[in-house]
Amino acid sequence: MNELIELTNVSKAFGDVVAISNLSMHVKTGSITGFLGPNGSGKSTTLKCVMGELYTDLGTVKVFGESPINNIRLKRRIGYVSEHDDLYPWMKGKQFVSSLARLLVPREEAENAAKEALKKVGLAVKGKKIRAYSKGMKQRLKVAAAIVHNPDLLILDEPFGGLDPLGRREMKRLVSELNQDGVTVLISSHILYELDQMSTRMILIHRGQTLAEGAPSEILELIDQFPHQILIHAPIDQLKNLSKLMIDESIISSLNYDMDKAATNLVAITNNPKEFYPTLTKLISENDLFIEHLESTTDNIEAIFEFLT
pTM to 2 decimals? Predict the structure, then answer.
């Protein structure tokens, strides 16, 4: 695979605030590259540099081997979905997409291009103004506007924001279908599970710097080194029996009881979540134990990234 996007030692500051610092990353042609980092880590600034919307203070940005700054010809090969709802609420969906299409394709082709783009994203709402659209419909409309000119590269900034589970599933399906049609995708999020299963490559960013990039399996293996805390809810006698069985397991770093007014929980900490859950299931099954439910309390992506640094 060729490198479609290359950032080399890029830095960008806004006054005294450093958004990205000495950042280097690569996006390969034909990939779905997940761009993962906590809020405020520099993802949006990086994407704007890739789009040529921002000048860098230091370093170089190459897209299709060229600088994106003031490069109209190159930008015609890129589709961009902002994290914000940059829509005209008084317009109808097809009217909005076709008006943008006229800026990018011959005028006589704009209407058909808009129709095809809306069909591709599964949005066929006649007579309804954008102000009446749901969040999921607005997100699909933004994607339609971004692909109306058949770009080679699609950049999506936090496209899952505000979507319900069905909307998230539909967005993942849409991105995968576009990629199968030959579109290279760069997609940002601050939530790991939104990206790990759909990406062919992943890039981790924290405090404006690249932490790691590679295959999802490699990135997940790196993240799994972070200590995971699991709360096990069950009657106290069941928890006592379970703790006796778990104490000798090498995958357990520590076991403690969490006592509160409502219930008693067993708190397990492991550095190997991949092995922990099958082992726990086996112990429960083989010893006929009853567990009400499990709860992972290690959902803080900022804490994970702090651990990796």
Answer: 0.78
